[in-house]
Design brief:
Layout (H helix, E strand, L loop, with lengths): L13 E5 L27 H13 L4 E5 L9 H9 L8 E6 L8 H7 L3 E5 L5 H8 L4 H12 L4 E7 L8 H11 L3 E5 L17 H9 L4 E3 L8 E5 L3 E6 L12 E4 L4 E3 L8 E2 H6 L4 H13 L18 H4 L2
Parallel strand pairs: 1-2, 1-10, 2-3, 3-4, 4-5, 5-6, 6-9
Antiparallel strand pairs: 7-8, 8-9, 10-11, 11-12
Bound molecules: S-adenosylmethionine and iron/sulfur cluster.
S-adenosylmethionine binds next to β3, β5 and α10.
Protein backbone atom coordinates (compact mmCIF):
# COMPACT_ATOMS: atom_id res chain seq x y z
CA UNK A 1 0.00 0.00 0.00
CA UNK A 2 1.22 3.57 -0.65
CA UNK A 3 2.47 5.40 2.47
CA UNK A 4 0.27 7.75 4.51
CA UNK A 5 0.99 11.27 3.35
CA UNK A 6 -0.66 14.61 4.15
CA UNK A 7 -1.42 17.59 1.91
CA UNK A 8 1.66 19.37 3.29
CA UNK A 9 3.89 16.56 1.96
CA UNK A 10 4.65 14.93 5.33
CA UNK A 11 4.82 11.11 5.34
CA UNK A 12 3.60 9.37 8.51
CA UNK A 13 5.85 6.77 10.10
CA UNK A 14 4.96 6.92 13.81
CA UNK A 15 1.77 6.09 15.67
CA UNK A 16 1.08 6.60 19.36
CA UNK A 17 -1.59 4.34 20.77
CA UNK A 18 -3.25 5.26 24.05
CA UNK A 19 -4.15 2.01 25.81
CA UNK A 20 -6.25 3.74 28.47
CA UNK A 21 -7.18 7.23 29.60
CA UNK A 22 -6.92 6.08 33.25
CA UNK A 23 -3.95 7.22 35.31
CA UNK A 24 -2.77 6.78 38.89
CA UNK A 25 -1.05 10.21 38.77
CA UNK A 26 -2.65 13.63 38.53
CA UNK A 27 0.03 15.72 36.80
CA UNK A 28 -1.33 19.24 36.90
CA UNK A 29 -0.18 20.01 33.34
CA UNK A 30 -1.92 16.92 31.89
CA UNK A 31 -5.36 16.51 33.44
CA UNK A 32 -7.85 18.02 35.87
CA UNK A 33 -7.50 16.82 39.47
CA UNK A 34 -10.91 15.12 39.22
CA UNK A 35 -11.10 13.86 35.65
CA UNK A 36 -14.19 12.37 34.01
CA UNK A 37 -12.92 9.00 32.78
CA UNK A 38 -14.19 7.69 29.46
CA UNK A 39 -16.89 5.00 29.84
CA UNK A 40 -15.18 1.60 30.17
CA UNK A 41 -17.32 0.13 27.41
CA UNK A 42 -16.00 2.74 24.97
CA UNK A 43 -12.35 1.72 25.41
CA UNK A 44 -11.00 -0.52 22.66
CA UNK A 45 -10.46 -4.13 23.64
CA UNK A 46 -7.20 -5.84 22.75
CA UNK A 47 -8.48 -7.34 19.51
CA UNK A 48 -9.68 -3.91 18.37
CA UNK A 49 -6.38 -2.22 19.28
CA UNK A 50 -4.38 -4.86 17.41
CA UNK A 51 -6.68 -4.70 14.37
CA UNK A 52 -6.27 -0.92 14.08
CA UNK A 53 -2.53 -1.11 14.78
CA UNK A 54 -2.21 -3.67 11.94
CA UNK A 55 -4.09 -1.42 9.56
CA UNK A 56 -1.63 1.41 10.26
CA UNK A 57 1.41 -0.87 9.92
CA UNK A 58 0.07 -2.05 6.55
CA UNK A 59 -0.09 1.64 5.55
CA UNK A 60 3.58 2.32 6.32
CA UNK A 61 3.63 3.06 10.05
CA UNK A 62 6.81 1.39 11.31
CA UNK A 63 7.13 2.79 14.85
CA UNK A 64 4.44 2.44 17.51
CA UNK A 65 4.55 3.94 21.00
CA UNK A 66 2.14 2.66 23.66
CA UNK A 67 1.00 5.38 26.01
CA UNK A 68 -2.01 6.62 27.94
CA UNK A 69 -3.10 7.66 30.56
CA UNK A 70 -0.78 5.22 32.24
CA UNK A 71 -0.29 2.08 30.11
CA UNK A 72 0.62 0.02 33.21
CA UNK A 73 -3.00 0.33 34.36
CA UNK A 74 -4.07 -1.83 31.44
CA UNK A 75 -4.58 -5.36 32.81
CA UNK A 76 -3.77 -7.09 29.50
CA UNK A 77 -0.72 -4.92 28.83
CA UNK A 78 1.70 -7.81 28.28
CA UNK A 79 -0.68 -9.47 25.82
CA UNK A 80 -1.12 -6.12 24.01
CA UNK A 81 2.67 -5.78 23.75
CA UNK A 82 3.08 -9.33 22.43
CA UNK A 83 0.26 -9.05 19.90
CA UNK A 84 1.27 -5.60 18.63
CA UNK A 85 4.90 -6.78 18.62
CA UNK A 86 3.87 -9.60 16.26
CA UNK A 87 3.19 -6.87 13.66
CA UNK A 88 6.97 -6.87 13.08
CA UNK A 89 6.16 -9.54 10.50
CA UNK A 90 4.12 -6.93 8.62
CA UNK A 91 6.69 -4.09 8.79
CA UNK A 92 6.75 -2.76 12.35
CA UNK A 93 10.35 -1.87 13.26
CA UNK A 94 10.09 -0.36 16.74
CA UNK A 95 7.70 -0.74 19.68
CA UNK A 96 8.10 1.77 22.52
CA UNK A 97 6.30 2.80 25.68
CA UNK A 98 5.82 6.07 27.58
CA UNK A 99 5.13 5.58 31.28
CA UNK A 100 5.26 7.29 34.66
CA UNK A 101 7.11 4.08 35.79
CA UNK A 102 5.44 4.05 39.21
CA UNK A 103 3.98 0.57 38.64
CA UNK A 104 6.55 -0.85 36.28
CA UNK A 105 9.03 -2.42 38.73
CA UNK A 106 7.39 -5.89 38.95
CA UNK A 107 6.80 -6.02 35.18
CA UNK A 108 10.03 -4.46 33.85
CA UNK A 109 11.69 -7.73 32.78
CA UNK A 110 8.51 -9.16 31.27
CA UNK A 111 7.92 -6.00 29.24
CA UNK A 112 11.43 -6.07 27.85
CA UNK A 113 11.09 -9.78 27.06
CA UNK A 114 7.65 -9.20 25.48
CA UNK A 115 9.21 -6.81 22.97
CA UNK A 116 9.30 -3.18 24.19
CA UNK A 117 12.40 -1.72 22.51
CA UNK A 118 12.59 1.47 24.56
CA UNK A 119 10.85 3.31 27.39
CA UNK A 120 10.31 7.04 27.92
CA UNK A 121 9.86 7.64 31.64
CA UNK A 122 8.32 10.92 32.83
CA UNK A 123 10.31 12.49 35.66
CA UNK A 124 9.79 16.23 36.01
CA UNK A 125 11.94 16.84 39.08
CA UNK A 126 14.33 14.98 41.34
CA UNK A 127 13.35 16.94 44.41
CA UNK A 128 10.52 14.94 46.10
CA UNK A 129 8.51 18.04 47.08
CA UNK A 130 8.66 19.53 43.61
CA UNK A 131 7.74 16.15 42.11
CA UNK A 132 4.76 15.88 44.46
CA UNK A 133 3.57 19.40 43.65
CA UNK A 134 3.55 18.62 39.92
CA UNK A 135 2.17 15.08 39.91
CA UNK A 136 0.25 15.04 43.22
CA UNK A 137 2.01 11.70 43.85
CA UNK A 138 5.24 10.41 45.45
CA UNK A 139 8.56 10.05 43.63
CA UNK A 140 9.83 6.86 45.36
CA UNK A 141 7.91 4.31 43.24
CA UNK A 142 9.05 6.12 40.08
CA UNK A 143 12.72 5.88 41.13
CA UNK A 144 12.16 2.18 41.94
CA UNK A 145 10.67 1.76 38.48
CA UNK A 146 13.67 3.42 36.84
CA UNK A 147 16.02 1.14 38.83
CA UNK A 148 14.01 -1.94 37.79
CA UNK A 149 14.10 -0.92 34.12
CA UNK A 150 17.86 -0.33 34.36
CA UNK A 151 18.37 -3.74 36.01
CA UNK A 152 16.29 -5.33 33.24
CA UNK A 153 18.67 -3.85 30.66
CA UNK A 154 15.94 -1.63 29.20
CA UNK A 155 16.71 1.25 26.90
CA UNK A 156 15.36 4.32 28.80
CA UNK A 157 15.02 8.06 28.26
CA UNK A 158 13.62 10.58 30.75
CA UNK A 159 11.01 13.21 29.81
CA UNK A 160 10.49 16.32 31.92
CA UNK A 161 7.95 19.08 31.36
CA UNK A 162 9.20 22.40 32.75
CA UNK A 163 6.74 24.91 34.21
CA UNK A 164 7.66 28.34 35.46
CA UNK A 165 7.24 28.67 39.20
CA UNK A 166 7.04 24.89 39.61
CA UNK A 167 10.18 23.04 38.55
CA UNK A 168 12.42 25.47 36.69
CA UNK A 169 14.79 25.37 39.70
CA UNK A 170 15.08 21.62 39.18
CA UNK A 171 16.41 21.86 35.60
CA UNK A 172 20.07 21.56 36.60
CA UNK A 173 19.67 19.11 39.53
CA UNK A 174 17.59 16.73 37.38
CA UNK A 175 20.08 17.02 34.52
CA UNK A 176 22.99 16.22 36.86
CA UNK A 177 21.09 13.27 38.38
CA UNK A 178 20.40 11.84 34.91
CA UNK A 179 23.99 12.53 33.75
CA UNK A 180 25.38 10.65 36.77
CA UNK A 181 23.31 7.62 35.75
CA UNK A 182 23.97 7.94 32.03
CA UNK A 183 20.22 8.14 31.25
CA UNK A 184 19.41 10.54 28.39
CA UNK A 185 16.97 13.32 29.26
CA UNK A 186 14.58 15.42 27.22
CA UNK A 187 13.08 18.63 28.49
CA UNK A 188 9.65 19.49 27.09
CA UNK A 189 8.10 22.96 26.88
CA UNK A 190 4.74 23.12 28.64
CA UNK A 191 2.02 22.83 25.96
CA UNK A 192 -1.62 23.99 26.15
CA UNK A 193 -3.10 20.49 26.41
CA UNK A 194 -4.37 20.48 30.00
CA UNK A 195 -7.67 21.42 31.61
CA UNK A 196 -9.34 24.40 29.89
CA UNK A 197 -8.07 27.75 31.19
CA UNK A 198 -5.11 26.18 33.05
CA UNK A 199 -2.25 26.84 30.61
CA UNK A 200 -0.69 30.31 30.55
CA UNK A 201 1.94 31.46 28.05
CA UNK A 202 3.91 32.98 30.96
CA UNK A 203 4.26 29.54 32.56
CA UNK A 204 6.20 28.19 29.56
CA UNK A 205 9.93 27.92 30.19
CA UNK A 206 11.30 28.20 26.66
CA UNK A 207 14.16 26.23 25.15
CA UNK A 208 16.28 29.41 25.31
CA UNK A 209 15.51 29.84 29.03
CA UNK A 210 16.40 26.19 29.73
CA UNK A 211 19.70 26.50 27.84
CA UNK A 212 20.53 29.67 29.76
CA UNK A 213 19.90 27.93 33.10
CA UNK A 214 22.06 24.93 32.14
CA UNK A 215 24.76 27.10 30.57
CA UNK A 216 25.60 28.68 33.94
CA UNK A 217 27.28 25.47 35.13
CA UNK A 218 27.67 23.28 32.01
CA UNK A 219 28.98 23.51 28.45
CA UNK A 220 26.12 22.91 26.00
CA UNK A 221 26.71 22.33 22.28
CA UNK A 222 24.02 22.22 19.61
CA UNK A 223 24.01 19.01 17.52
CA UNK A 224 22.64 18.34 14.00
CA UNK A 225 18.88 17.71 14.00
CA UNK A 226 17.31 14.39 13.01
CA UNK A 227 13.60 13.60 12.46
CA UNK A 228 13.17 13.50 16.27
CA UNK A 229 11.08 16.40 17.63
CA UNK A 230 13.76 17.17 20.23
CA UNK A 231 16.58 19.56 19.37
CA UNK A 232 19.73 17.61 20.29
CA UNK A 233 22.51 19.02 22.48
CA UNK A 234 25.68 17.59 23.97
CA UNK A 235 26.36 18.59 27.58
CA UNK A 236 29.97 18.79 28.77
CA UNK A 237 31.08 17.11 25.56
CA UNK A 238 29.50 13.72 26.23
CA UNK A 239 25.92 13.70 27.56
CA UNK A 240 22.95 13.74 25.13
CA UNK A 241 20.20 16.21 26.07
CA UNK A 242 17.11 16.93 23.98
CA UNK A 243 14.69 19.85 24.19
CA UNK A 244 11.21 19.69 22.65
CA UNK A 245 10.20 23.27 21.97
CA UNK A 246 6.69 22.96 20.58
CA UNK A 247 5.71 26.42 21.84
CA UNK A 248 8.79 28.55 21.12
CA UNK A 249 10.00 26.74 17.99
CA UNK A 250 7.45 24.21 16.64
CA UNK A 251 8.72 21.30 14.52
CA UNK A 252 5.39 20.86 12.65
CA UNK A 253 6.95 21.06 9.17
CA UNK A 254 8.55 17.61 9.62
CA UNK A 255 5.86 15.98 11.77
CA UNK A 256 5.60 12.26 10.94
CA UNK A 257 3.25 11.12 13.72
CA UNK A 258 -0.36 10.21 14.35
CA UNK A 259 -2.27 9.45 17.55
CA UNK A 260 -4.98 6.96 18.37
CA UNK A 261 -6.95 7.47 21.58
CA UNK A 262 -8.10 4.63 23.84
CA UNK A 263 -11.51 4.73 22.13
CA UNK A 264 -9.92 4.49 18.69
CA UNK A 265 -10.27 8.12 17.69
CA UNK A 266 -7.55 9.15 15.27
CA UNK A 267 -5.97 12.57 15.93
CA UNK A 268 -3.58 13.56 13.18
CA UNK A 269 -2.14 16.36 15.35
CA UNK A 270 -1.86 16.90 19.13
CA UNK A 271 -3.69 20.16 18.56
CA UNK A 272 -6.48 18.96 16.21
CA UNK A 273 -9.88 20.15 17.42
CA UNK A 274 -11.53 16.97 16.09
CA UNK A 275 -10.64 13.31 15.68
CA UNK A 276 -11.84 10.57 13.30
CA UNK A 277 -13.81 7.91 15.22
CA UNK A 278 -12.24 4.74 13.81
CA UNK A 279 -13.18 2.73 16.90
CA UNK A 280 -16.87 3.61 16.58
CA UNK A 281 -16.84 2.81 12.82
CA UNK A 282 -15.17 -0.52 13.55
CA UNK A 283 -17.94 -1.38 16.02
CA UNK A 284 -20.51 -0.61 13.31
CA UNK A 285 -18.89 -3.45 11.36
CA UNK A 286 -17.07 -1.58 8.59
CA UNK A 287 -14.36 -3.39 6.64
CA UNK A 288 -10.61 -2.78 6.80
CA UNK A 289 -10.85 -1.21 3.32
CA UNK A 290 -13.34 1.40 4.54
CA UNK A 291 -11.33 2.07 7.72
CA UNK A 292 -8.17 2.39 5.63
CA UNK A 293 -9.89 4.93 3.37
CA UNK A 294 -10.99 6.97 6.41
CA UNK A 295 -7.42 6.94 7.74
CA UNK A 296 -6.03 8.08 4.38
CA UNK A 297 -8.55 10.91 4.13
CA UNK A 298 -7.98 12.11 7.70
CA UNK A 299 -4.21 12.02 7.24
CA UNK A 300 -4.41 13.86 3.91
CA UNK A 301 -6.43 16.66 5.57
CA UNK A 302 -3.99 17.01 8.51
CA UNK A 303 -3.57 20.68 9.46
CA UNK A 304 -0.24 22.48 9.28
CA UNK A 305 -0.10 22.22 13.11
CA UNK A 306 0.68 24.31 16.17
CA UNK A 307 3.03 26.53 14.17
CA UNK A 308 0.07 27.75 12.08
CA UNK A 309 -2.43 28.06 14.96
CA UNK A 310 -0.66 28.57 18.31
CA UNK A 311 -2.43 28.52 21.68
CA UNK A 312 -4.98 26.29 23.42
CA UNK A 313 -7.42 24.18 21.36
CA UNK A 314 -11.11 24.33 22.11
CA UNK A 315 -11.95 20.65 22.71
CA UNK A 316 -12.89 18.48 25.67
CA UNK A 317 -9.91 16.09 25.19
CA UNK A 318 -6.95 16.81 27.49
CA UNK A 319 -3.50 15.20 27.22
CA UNK A 320 -4.23 12.14 29.39
CA UNK A 321 -7.10 11.16 27.06
CA UNK A 322 -5.23 12.03 23.87
CA UNK A 323 -2.17 9.94 24.61
CA UNK A 324 1.06 11.91 24.92
N1 LIG B 1 1.44 8.38 31.84
C1 LIG B 1 2.55 8.28 30.97
C2 LIG B 1 3.63 9.27 31.32
O1 LIG B 1 3.37 10.18 32.09
O2 LIG B 1 4.73 9.14 30.80
C3 LIG B 1 2.17 8.40 29.51
C4 LIG B 1 1.16 9.43 29.13
S1 LIG B 1 1.66 11.11 29.34
C5 LIG B 1 0.23 11.95 28.73
C6 LIG B 1 2.86 11.27 28.06
C7 LIG B 1 3.74 12.48 28.12
O3 LIG B 1 2.97 13.65 27.91
C8 LIG B 1 4.47 12.66 29.44
O4 LIG B 1 5.87 12.66 29.22
C9 LIG B 1 3.99 14.02 29.91
O5 LIG B 1 5.00 14.70 30.57
C10 LIG B 1 3.59 14.69 28.60
N2 LIG B 1 2.65 15.80 28.81
C11 LIG B 1 1.44 15.73 29.41
N3 LIG B 1 0.85 16.95 29.42
C12 LIG B 1 1.72 17.80 28.83
C13 LIG B 1 1.70 19.20 28.55
N4 LIG B 1 0.67 19.98 28.89
N5 LIG B 1 2.78 19.74 27.93
C14 LIG B 1 3.84 18.97 27.57
N6 LIG B 1 3.91 17.63 27.79
C15 LIG B 1 2.86 17.06 28.43
FE1 LIG C 1 -0.76 10.45 34.15
FE2 LIG C 1 1.24 10.67 32.44
FE3 LIG C 1 -0.69 12.51 32.53
FE4 LIG C 1 1.00 12.36 34.54
S1 LIG C 1 1.54 12.87 32.41
S2 LIG C 1 -1.24 12.52 34.73
S3 LIG C 1 1.42 10.23 34.63
S4 LIG C 1 -0.94 10.45 31.91
Amino acid sequence: MSPLIDRHGRTKRKLRISLTDRCNFRCTYCMPEHPDWLPKSSLLDRGEVVRLAGLFVDSGIDQIRLTGGEPLLRRDLLECVREIGALRERGLRRLSMTTNASRIAPKARELVAAGIDDFNVSLDAIDPDTFRRLTLREIAPVLDGIDALTDAGANIKLNAVVIRGDNEKDIVPLLEWAMARGIPLRYIEYMPLDAPGHWKRDAVVSEADMLAAIGVSHRVEHQPRSSDPATPYLVDGHYPLGIISTVSNPFCSTCDRLRLTATGELFTCLFSPLGTPLGARMREGVSDEVLGEQVRRAVWLKDAGYAARPGPVDRPVTMHAMGG
